[in-house]
Structure formats: C-alpha cells, structure tokens
Amino acid sequence: MVSYPSFHYRQNLLCCEGVPVPRITRETGTPAYVYSASAMESAYRRLHSALEGVPHKICYSVKSNSNQSVLRLFARLGAGFDVVSGGELYRLRRIGVGGERIVFSGVGKTPEEIIEALRHRVLLLNVESEAELEEVARQARRLRIRARVGIRVNPDVEATTHPHISTGTRAHKFGIPWQAVPRICQAISGNRWIRPCGLSFHIGSQILALDPFRRALRRMRALFEELCPGAFSLQYLDVGGGLGIPYGSEKPPAIEAYARVLREGLAGIGCLLLLEPGRILVGPAGILVTSALLTKENQGKRFVVVDAGMNDFLRPALYGVPHRILPVRRSRRQARRQEGKLASDAEVVGPVCETGDSFGTHRVGRLRPGDLLAIADTGAYGFCFSSNYNSRLRPVEVLVEGRRFRRIRRRESREDLIRGES
After folding, report:
1. In this predicted structure, what is the pLDDT of residue 235?
2. Is residue 70 within 8 Å of residue 35, measured between CB atoms?
3. Fold type of domain 105-277
4. DSSP alpha helices (H): ranges in 2-85?
5. Domain with CATH 2.40.37.10 in the chain
6. Most distant CA pair in the chain: distance in Å?
7. What's the CA gap between 224 and 198, in Å, rounded?
8. Please, what sign has the CA dihedral across residues 60, 64, 66, 67?
9. Which of 308, 342, 371, 406 is most buried by a 10 A CB count?
10. pLDDT tens by residue, 245-273
C-alpha cells in the first residue's frame, strides 16, 4: 500500500489527491516526479502536534528535497530549515526565508559559505571541528559579526541503518568527539566573536528503532548539563533527524513514539529543541511515474525495461534497497492481491548502461509498452540525487494540490545538457 492516503486507487486508477496520475503524465510525459502537497503538510503537522507543549522548532532538511515550491510550502507552515551548503542557503534566500529560521550544518564549509551564513545572520552555524571553529572566528572577526555557533557533537552512538547513512560514531567524519566538547567550549569562552548557543548531533538516517535516539539523548543531556549553567548559556539542543519510513516491510516507530522519546529524554532541560527531519516529511509524499518500454527474457528470467533509470532515481542502486512499485492502472486481480508484495515475477530495470540500473524484482503483471508504473516513496532523496549520466535529461517535477497540479520544475532539454560547456 502507499504510505499516505493522498495516494489511492479510484476505480483501480492510481490518484494523487484528487488527480488521476495518467492525467498528469498526458501533459508532462514520463519519467515524472509527482508530489502531494497535503501529504507533506499532514506529516509536518503530525510531528508538530506530537511535540505540543515542548518548546521546539522543526527545521526541514533541505537536502532531502530542495525544490523551491516544496521549500515555500514548509515556509508557509512556519518551519525552520537545515542547510548543508551555500547553494541550499541561496535557495532559501531566493524565497525570502530569514536567517533566524536557518541552521547551517555540514562538515566541510568553505570560507565563502561561512561568510554567507554570517552575513545572513543564521540562527546557528553548526561547527564540526576545531579547525572549522577557528575559521568561523577568523571570518567573524573580519566581518565584525558575532557568530552564533552550535557545536556538532559526535556522541559515538551506533544507529542500525545502512553504513552509508550512519553518522554518529567515532568512525565517521561528522562532529566533534563528545569527550572534547567541554575543553573546546572553555577555550572559546573568551572569544568576543564566537557566541556558543547550542549543541547539535545527528546519528544517521533511515533509523528504524528508538533505542539509538535514547542513548544519544542521554549522552547529550549529560553534556548539556555539564556546560550549563556556568560560563555558557546554551539555548538550543539540535537533535538532528533520522527517523525512518517504511519503504517495504520495514516497521519504523510512529512519529508519536519518536516524539515521546524526545520528551522524556529532554524533560526539564530548559532549552529550545531543534529537529532536522526530511525523509519523514517528504519521502512518502512522492512517487516517480515511469512508462514501460518493453519486456524481455534471458533464459527464463523476465525483465521489464522502463524509461526511468538510475540517473533519475539512484537510491535502489546506491543502497541496494528496492522501493515498492505500483501499477498506475491495476487489474481487478491486482486489486484483490496485496499491493507491493515482492515476487519472483520480473526485474524492473532502466535504460542506463549499468547492471546496477535496477529497481528490483517485483510482481508487476503483464505490461504493454506505454503502461505506467509508480515507484513509491520517492519524495526524499529522489530528484536531488538525479544526474545527467548517459546524457539523459532529468525528469519533470509536479506538485498536486487537491484537484489541481502544476509543474514545479520543467523537464530538461538537450540544450540544458550542454549549457555551460565550450
């Protein structure tokens, strides 16, 4: 099944909110990313409601889906934003988001990005090393702007997730070892250009259990209480993001259970809680619609070749995890069968010249050229991972709002492929 009621079948035709998916693709073609505005809004409001009574700010993780229409949607809801590059900060500036709503993270900020963040007066500039702290102090002194700094702590807590998206142990490049934080904070306490405002941590992404969050919170709470009160008056504790979503058979904790862990772990600490969710807000709110090109068999193995490739959607090839694939127009027999059930029916593959260009083995039934399939839960880390590999054009993006839809990014042209080249 699809994760949000915004995607549903009506007379065996897949719809996004009030719009049948074929109506969209008749105008846009395929491949096409299709997003539900109501799914994003519902997820945001659900998390916000689960934290009612806890002083908090939800800072949407821009890297998960950075389309400006998506950013405007969260800005209208009152969200803050987490950015990890000057380009992401630029996107927010273009839509009028003030620095007081922005947390700037990232392990390798350039001097130019630090300057841009300081000039935009971001809420927190999360530093991840002593060397970066020295650079922030140097640029703040040169600009005569007092930097509002958060210390990103590496709590050395293992999160059970894919190794490429685990970020919170000593083996990872992220953050400052938790044991070193008091010494570093003491060293900067007399620097007039650095204002320590908070602590930050992020232990990984697509986390499917609550215990890693509990362990990280215990360590961070102890560190926060060691530093405050005293020479510091820290205002913020940034707990990052990382809660997973069900791509297949996974059973991640509910948003409410996650919020309860945060409530219990930070009770009475006296700070403003910052969160940086991305996947849980936009992942289930998107599908990638693709057309079948042909079917073929190689010595008994069946393949369905579609017009979307790993350049359009990289996650299955990058992490080795298939997403559910749904027929846009399903038969009565498919309607009676459990949706998304994996079976040794056909491997769905793209046209890119890589063996890894595969969306996994699925039960997709008999398909004719032009039949539509929807790859589910692609709203996060979908388009933002796309590329022009094999000189392929990146897909169109569409936002559905009730019974209306609009392009929020046009499909690239061949002229776009060579723009900037000589």
Report:
1. 92
2. yes
3. TIM Barrel (3.20.20)
4. 21-28, 37-50, 68-76
5. 7-36+283-418
6. 73
7. 9
8. negative
9. 308
10. 999 888 999 999 999 999 999 988 889 99
The better pLDDT of the pair 411, 174 is held by 411
Neighbours of 101 (CB within 10 A): 17
* Mean pLDDT, rounded, of the chain: 90
CB 58 within 8 A of CB 277: yes
CA angle 188, 190, 194 (to 5 degrees): 55
- Token output for 422: 């000589």
CA distance 22 to 35: 14
Burial 215-239 (b: 16+ CB within 10 A, else e): bbbebbbebbeebbeeebebbbbbb
Q: How far is CA 154 from CA 199, 203, 300, 325, in A?
A: 10, 8, 50, 37
Q: Is 15 a catalytic residue?
A: no
**Total-model pTM:** 0.92
The residue from 59, 197, 271, 353 that is catalytic is 353
* pLDDT tens-digit series, residues 124-181: 999 998 889 999 999 999 999 999 999 888 887 756 544 444 444 455 666 788 778 8
Residues sharing a CB contact under 8 Å with residue 363, sequence separation 6 or more, in sequence order: 337, 341, 342, 343, 345, 346
The DSSP 8-state label assigned to residue 395 in this structure reads P
Tokens 């549903």 correspond to what residue? 8
The third-level CATH classification (topology) of the domain covering 7-36+283-418 is Lyase, Ornithine Decarboxylase; Chain A, domain 1 (2.40.37)
Tens digit of each residue's pLDDT (9 = 90 or more) over 198-212:
999 888 889 999 998
Residues listed for the chain:
422
Q: Which pLDDT tens digit goes with each residue over 16-36? A: 999 999 999 999 999 999 999
List, by residue range, all CATH 3.20.20.10 domains of the chain.
105-277
